[in-house]
Amino acid sequence: MPKAGDKGAGTRTRARELMVQALYQKQIAGHSTSELMSQFQDQAAYKRVDQAYFNEQFKAISSTQRELEKKVDGLIDRPLAQLDPIELAILLIGVYELESRIDIPYKVVINEGVNLAKRFGSIEGHKYINACLDIAAKSFREIETKVQG
């Protein structure tokens, strides 16, 4: 069982779960990145995540959110404004990781996105997330997706 602060997969999964919540809150309530960082770092759940990963990823996604939203907009079959805030948060994380975190295999990014959608999203939302992240993986990780098929 990983301990608090470990860099294991479970702590990264929990970090992504917190990121979904923080990005959702940012969209709904309009809180700043620094407000959300402080708020989430004070939660008990924060002690059970890969904190460095959460801090780095959340700041990076927040600071490039508009650019990431444009990339997400190119993947989806509806206007960005019609996308569920939870699904948008998951896609922001997934697109960021596919584009900027080459150390994370694309299949892991997709799987994590699907699992986040199953946990937090609508009933069939995970299928939509899977399709969108698959398209993104083929775009941002063309060589990796062809090699691993």
CATH topology tier name: N-utilizing Substance Protein B Homolog, Chain A
CATH superfamily: NusB-like
Number of strands: 0
CATH class: Mainly Alpha
Structural category is mainly alpha
CATH architecture: Orthogonal Bundle
Domain module count: 1
Distance between the termini: 32 Å
Low-confidence stretches: 1-6
Q: Radius of gyration, Cα only, in angstroms?
A: 15 Å
> Largest sheet, if any?
none
Based on CA inertia axes, which overall geometry fits? globular
| SSE pattern | HHHHHHHH
Describe this structure in words.
This protein has 149 residues and is an all-alpha fold. The protein has helices at 9-29, 33-41, 51-63, 65-73, 85-100, 106-120, 125-140, 142-148. Helix 5 (85-100) runs antiparallel to helix 6 (106-120) and helix 6 (106-120) packs antiparallel against helix 7. The longest helix has 21 residues, at 9-29. The protein is globular, with a radius of gyration of 15 Å.
Topology overview:
Blueprint: H1 9-29, H2 33-41, H3 51-63, H4 65-73, H5 85-100, H6 106-120, H7 125-140, H8 142-148
Helix pairs in contact: 1-2, 1-3, 1-5, 4-5, 5-6, 5-7, 6-7, 7-8
Labels describing this entry:
single chain, 8 helices, 149 residues, N-utilizing Substance Protein B Homolog, Chain A, disordered N terminus, mainly alpha, 71% helix, globular
Quick structural overview:
The protein is mainly alpha-helical.
